[in-house]
Design brief:
about 250 residues; Protein Transport Mog1p, Chain A; two-stranded antiparallel sheet; about 30% helix; seven-stranded antiparallel beta sheet; alpha+beta
Length: about 250
């Protein structure tokens, strides 16, 4: 993203020109495609989602289930970007997502298989938005989705690579330093656009997203800066995920 005109550029923040305007001076575009092949409308809704869910004491079967669900949600809360994970960036907001948010849209490729797999294996999802501390701009979305097993997550991740109806997607070379097995693409539905770097670590599917205006074009230098910035953000989030899985980062 570009710096606001008249302000110094924050180190490590890529430049995304929107004509003569700065991309981060515009309202933040939402992701075009959530992991798990979710609908575009859900992606917009997620920006306003609020955190929080109840927890229960394991004294009855129902309360045990609530406790397990809360534990899964607590894990993914710790797996998304937070204050200082990207130098110069701070948490603006975060929020939980529901199973319904993750289901594919009817008509999507592999709809029945994807819906069945996600419904049977999804445990919890969380997103956060981090912004540049200096000026409150350059928002980046971070998302983590936890499943019952690495095998289930691997199958869902494979299905997720299918094109989304109504969205133009261009696969880009995976930036150096990205998490292992990452996928990097540019998506544009004519109204919103952006760059998504996604990956899987065991039973978790994660991604970071940087929005752009659908009409803008990018020089090779800008594309390299965007890729390097998102790889840096993804490494920071992947470190969080690995730390939670290893029991090093509390949740």
């Amino acid at each position: 993203m570009t710096r606001p005109r008249g302000h110094a550029k924050a180190p490590g923040v890529p430049l995304l020109k929107v004509g003569s305007e700065a991309a981060d001076e515009r309202s933040m575009p939402a992701p075009l495609r959530l992991p798990l092949i979710a609908t575009f409308s859900v992606a917009v809704t997620m920006l306003a989602a609020a955190c929080g869910s109840g927890s229960g004491s394991p004294t009855t079967p129902q309360q045990v289930r609530l406790g397990a669900a809360q534990k899964a949600q607590d894990k993914v809360i710790a797996m998304v970007l937070n204050d200082g994970d990207i130098p110069g960036f701070a948490l603006q907001r975060d929020g939980a997502e529901t199973l319904k948010d993750q289901l594919p849209r009817k008509g999507a490729r592999h709809y029945a298989v994807a819906k069945r797999l996600v419904t049977a294996n999804w445990l919890a999802s969380e997103h956060s938005i981090v912004i540049r501390s200096a000026d409150g701009k350059a928002p980046v979305i971070s998302d983590a989705n936890l499943f019952k097993s690495a095998a289930a997550a691997a199958r869902i991740w494979t299905l997720e690579q299918s094109p989304t109806p109504g969205v133009r997607m261009k696969q880009l070379p995976t930036p150096a330093g990205s998490p292992k097995g990452a996928s990097y693409d540019y998506e544009n539905n004519g109204k919103l656009a952006g760059f998504t770097l996604g990956w899987r670590r065991g039973p978790v599917i994660a991604y970071v997203f940087l929005g752009a205006h659908p009409g803008e074009t990018f020089s090779p230098l800008v594309l390299r800066r965007v890729a390097a910035f998102l790889a840096r953000a993804a490494r920071a989030q992947d470190h969080r995920i690995a730390s939670v899985q290893a029991g090093v980062l509390p949740y």
